[in-house]
Specification:
Blueprint (H helix, E strand, L loop, with lengths): L2 E10 L3 H9 L19 E7 L8 E12 L3 E8 L3 E9 L5 E8 L2 H7 L14 E7 L9 H17 L8 E7 L4 H13 L4 E5 L2 H14 L2 E4 L12 E3 L4 H16 L3 E7 L2 H16 L3 E8 L7 H10 L3 E5 L3 H12 L7 E4 L4 H7 L1 H4 L3 E4 L8 H14 L8 H20 L4 H10 L2 E4 L2 E6 L2 E3 L2 E7 L2 E8 L5
Parallel strand pairs: 7-8, 7-9, 9-10, 10-11, 12-13, 12-14, 14-15
Antiparallel strand pairs: 1-6, 2-3, 3-4, 4-5, 5-6, 16-20, 17-18, 18-19, 20-21
Length: about 475
């Protein structure tokens, strides 16, 4: 289809050398780049864009990594979401002490298919394959997880197919983008159900997951929620596998209080069910551990300016913060906390600080943050080292970092296919029943097993040191 200019003649009041530095330091408005890193090969970049009216005027967010830098004239970003392609950002002189920034994205048939995904139904599945659905957030605040989410699921599917598939048939992975929006997520689940996906993995926020539940019930789909979640009542059409905030808090808060001698907490979250459920669990652990909650506040999902929240933290006198902010919101919050000088005054436990979010925050703004998950890329075990080798061999040395938010999909694919093999059927009722009875898998994070309560898995504590999340402690029984 050629090339479409997405930011036509964005002007900056400085010469190209300075304009390039401005972009490298944070991008144009709405962009996301890690703070405290030079613009170099492999650095992640998120670039918002609006497609032309001829393609439906869809809002999208390019998620990719820098693959070439020609300072101060241009740099190129290769991306896999929402489609595979490249973006070229060029800087040119435009008169005395002015520059023009040109952003060009290459659109092809894959991009056209993404733009029209809500209109054109996918072709029916062939009779000799099982279709497995995956819904993730290719756009919106939760999009920081999506590149690795699709890659880890794809890797698991390819491994299973190389071993003969499931019940004599290969798996076919079909993906959907919920835009971090409940309505879009529900529409994507309808599309995947019509395409023949009887089992769908949901790497989505809890707000989107709640919108998926009635759709799954209506269309007879088993929906499996893979990332951390606040728990809740079970149902035949769903299973939630991720970490629970009670387990994260029980692992991290006593250790945080011992390490800092702090006891007064400020709870900061997004205004939806995950954060509110997480903070209820956190409050119980804080009080049980002899601490107190000074204040609690919530920001709308998609917030970019946290000045008022940071001012409230400063006024509260809290010496510890628990953040349940998600994705891009967590990135902005931690960067602004660092800029405000609060990183030295209060210690922060971030419940959704996975490797992808950590990378966007940058090494300086993330230094000293605490988190707790059931998987970290830095786990030193034979199984995890083999998994990472397979992942980077398949997707390249600069592939998006793997985290609990995304490695869980890899294990979920293996757990689902084992349940189908044990039950002798791909029927979602059979698969769900087998998962609730119990399926075990020895994977990158260690041994995990399913039950009607979710997933039994280890919990690891980690802190951000020198630009990496480093595991400091393992607690094996707190995730139950």
């Amino acid at each position: 289809m050629g090339e479409i200019i997405l930011a036509d003649r964005e002007q900056l009041p400085c010469p190209p050398e300075q304009a390039f530095d401005v972009i490298a330091g944070g991008g144009l408005p709405g962009w996301r780049l890690p703070r405290g890193q030079a613009l170099r090969l492999g650095v992640p970049v998120a670039i918002p864009l609006t497609l032309p009216a001829t393609l439906g005027g869809q809002r999208a967010e390019i998620l990719g990594r820098v693959v070439s830098v020609d300072r101060p004239r241009r740099f190129v970003v290769h991306h896999d979401l929402p489609w595979t392609g490249s973006v070229t950002v060029s800087v040119r002189p435009d008169g005395p002490a002015r520059s023009t920034v040109r952003v060009a994205v290459q659109l092809d048939e894959e991009a056209l298919g993404w733009a029209r995904r809500m209109v054109a139904a996918p072709a029916p599945a062939a009779g000799d394959v099982w279709r497995l659905g995956l819904i993730s957030s290719g756009t919106g605040p939760a999009s920081v997880f999506s590149v690795a989410a699709r890659s880890t699921a794809r890797l698991a599917v390819e491994q299973i197919n190389a071993d003969g598939g499931v019940l004599g048939r290969p798996l076919e992975l079909m993906t959907g983008d919920d835009g971090t929006h409940p309505g879009l997520g529900a529409a994507e689940l309808v599309r995947l159900a019509h395409a023949g996906c009887r089992v769908v993995l949901a790497n989505v926020t809890s707000a989107v997951f709640q919108a998926l539940r009635p759709v799954a019930r209506k269309y007879g789909v088993l929906i499996i929620h893979t990332p951390l979640n606040e728990g809740g009542a079970g149902a035949p059409e769903l299973l939630r596998l991720g970490e629970r905030p009670a387990a994260q808090a029980a692992a991290a808060i006593p250790a945080l209080m011992r390490a800092t001698s702090g006891s007064h907490f400020y709870l900061a979250g997004n205004d939806y069910c995950w954060s509110r459920g997480a903070n209820r669990a956190v409050r119980r652990v804080v009080e049980r551990s002899g601490g107190s909650v000074a204040a609690e506040a919530y920001a709308e999902l998609g917030t970019t300016d946290f000045a008022s929240l940071i001012a409230s933290i400063r006024r509260s006198g809290a010496d510890l913060v628990v953040s349940s902010l998600v994705g891009a919101d967590e990135v902005a919050f931690e960067q602004q906390m660092h800029a405000a000088g609060l990183r030295q005054e209060v210690a922060t436990l971030a419940l959704v600080l996975d490797e992808s979010t950590h990378e966007f925050i940058g090494p300086d703004a993330s230094e000293g943050l605490w988190t707790a998950f059931s998987y970290f890329e830095s786990l030193d075990s034979a199984a995890n080292n083999a998994f990472k080798a397979d992942y980077h061999r398949r997707f390249g040395p600069e592939a998006a970092p793997v985290s609990s938010m995304t490695e869980g999909l890899y294990e979920a694919v293996h757990l689902v296919t084992r349940a189908a093999a044990d039950g002798g059927s791909w029927d979602p009722v059979v698969v769900g029943e087998r998962l609730r009875v119990g399926v075990t898998y020895d994977g990158p994070r260690g041994r995990v097993s399913t039950s009607w309560r979710g997933l039994h898995q280890p919990i690891y504590l980690a802190t951000s040191r020198g630009g990496a999340l480093r595991v400091t402690e393992q607690l094996t029984d707190l995730a139950r």
